Structures are given as C-alpha cells and as structure tokens.
Amino acid sequence: MDALTDMGEESRRAPGEAPGLSDERCRSLLSELDGLKRANDAVVLAHYYTRPEVQRAADYVGDSFALARLATTVPQRTLVIAGVSFMAESMKLLNPDKRVLVPDPSADCPMAHMVSRATVLEARERYGDDLAVVCYVNSTAEIKSWSDVCVTSSNAVRIVRGLSQHHVLFIPDEHLGRYVAQQVPEKHVILNDGRCPFHAQIGAREVRDLMRAHPNAPVLAHPECTSEVLEIADVIGSTAEIIEAAQNSAAQEFIVVTMSGVQAELERRCAPGKKFHFTSSSRCPEMDKVTLGQVVACLRDGVGEVPMPAHADAAAATLDRMLALASNKG
Ligand code: 13P
Ligand code: SF4
C-alpha cells in the first residue's frame, strides 16, 4: 500500500477544544498552553502515538510524513514537536529559520540509531552509482546525511519504485525494507539489521489469537511489524493509513497491530461503537515520555530548543527530496 497521506488526515483542533478532559489539572494546563502559544507564536504538532491528553492539546496530530510536510507550511514561528527526537530534528532541518522545541529531549526512537556508516560505505563501494541509499525518516540527522533520499511508511513503496537506481540499500528498518522489497520486486533491495523493538516483538501467534476471538475484525498492521504479522494483515499502512482504513470500513471492529497511541484518533474519527483490539504489548515507551506538563513547560520556560544538527545540508537534502518525490503524482 503506497497511497500518500493526504493533508486532510491531520486533525485541526480549535483552541481550547478538549473533549473528555475533566481533570482540573489538564484544564488548567490547556488554558495555560493557549496563552503561551499566542505569546510565542507557536503551534503544537503531535504524533498519533503520544498520550491522549497530548494529542488533545495539539493543533495538529498526524503521522510522521504529514507532520513533516505540515511543518513547512504553518505560519507560526515556533514549532513544538510532541514526538521523539528524530521528528524534532527533521522539523529543524526542514525549517532552519524557525524555533523548534521538543518537550522531552530524552524521548528517542531506538531504531533511529540502528545502522553503521560501514554498512552504507560497503554498499556504495559495491554498487557505485546504481545504488540509492534510502533512509526511513526514523533516523538521526547524521544517518540521513549518508543517504540519498528519505521515506516514511506512507510513501516508501512509491518513492522506491520511482528511483532510477536498481540497487537500494534500505536503512535502518529491516521490516519496512522487506515490505518495500516485496511491493517493488523489480528492485534489488538490500536490508539492514535494524528494527523497532516494540513492533518487532508483536508475535503472529497473538495476532492469530485475536483473529479467532474477533473473526469479523480486519487486521490493520504497520509495516514495521515482522513479515509473519504482515502476511496475515488485511491492510498494511502508516498510522494515518490505518486510521483512515478503519474510518472508511463498514466493519465494526478491528485488530490494530501497531502502537495503541492511535486509539485516541481512531475513536475520535470513527463512528461511535466501532471497537479496536490491540496486542498486549503495544505502547511506545519513548512517545509515552512526552507529557502535557512538558509541552506547557517547554513554551513557558523556553527549554528543549532543538539546535541545527551537524551535517545539516546533506541531511536536509534527503528530506527535501522526499517531499519533492512524494508530491510528484507520476
Ligand atoms: P508513521 O510514519 O506511521 O507515523 O510511523 C512512525 C513510527 O514511528 C512508527 O513506529
Ligand atoms: Fe521508534 Fe518504534 Fe516508537 Fe515508532 S514505535 S517511535 S519506531 S520506538
């Protein structure tokens, strides 16, 4: 599945709109946040995996591609990125003149570090100009700077299919890389030894148990899952594509094989009564680190500013290429 995430899939929220927030502390934080956003000319962008109250506080919620693209179009001078550090780093690379704040700088995707320079150099040595190094956006700026083009889970298949090179080194995620290789068999895709530990630990056996318990529920899976899980999925897609599939389906219940942070948006967007079943270990502990209090504090205290990463020009070029290729409808 290689459909692009449409801009309309992020959720624009009116200031102060906070359904279900009854807790006094949350209300006071949200009201403080509104004032701080105005005073700082700031916008809050949150990933679907963050805590529900963080998503409620955000002006936009989206998948990693939609947020990266959106960040280049919003007028505000300050971007607060409620997500893990590679996301904030990418926003800084794409928006060098803006102030980018990350509420919890320790929230870090482990997969973003899982490739060595030697792997890239060996492949370049072996395949020369007929190799493209394709870097999943879940990667540090340094890793991006070694690469030719970035992709996200919502555009990887389409971007790889359109490359002129025959050989593709896909880093760092072996599972997304394997999925892309299956979808684009005309390319020679070289896989790397890296993965999301939280998606990779979801077992096909547990998914099958859920299928037996809920026989009418389609299985919606993120391509960071293992191939054994993807083989039994009805829909494979990014977080935004999973949410969209559930929203557009006539089914009343779904087995959702990704991090359960997406539940907040699934419930917000789907007709009342639709049910979502997750596997037992389905939280991203890094995204969970980001709290509403930290979102407020980074604006109030001016902390968590993301510096321009080293290797910025080369790293930004890979993101710019992704945005250009993704908007090319050919
Ligand atoms: P999306 O690109 O679907 O937002 O996924 C990001 C991610 O980190 C998945 O684990
Ligand atoms: Fe990284 Fe996995 Fe968390 Fe996604 S779910 S941010 S890949 S650790």
From TrEMBL:
Q: In which pathway does it act?
A: Cofactor biosynthesis; NAD(+) biosynthesis; quinolinate from iminoaspartate: step 1/1
Q: Name one Pfam family in it.
A: NadA
Extract the ranges annotated as region (Disordered): 1-23
Classification via InterPro entries: NadA, NadA_sf
The residues that cross the membrane are: none
Record-linked Gene3D superfamilies: NadA-like
Q: Which NCBIfam families match?
A: nadA (TIGR00550), PRK09375.1-2 (NF006878)
What is the protein name for this chain?
Answer: Quinolinate synthase
Native organism: Enorma phocaeensis
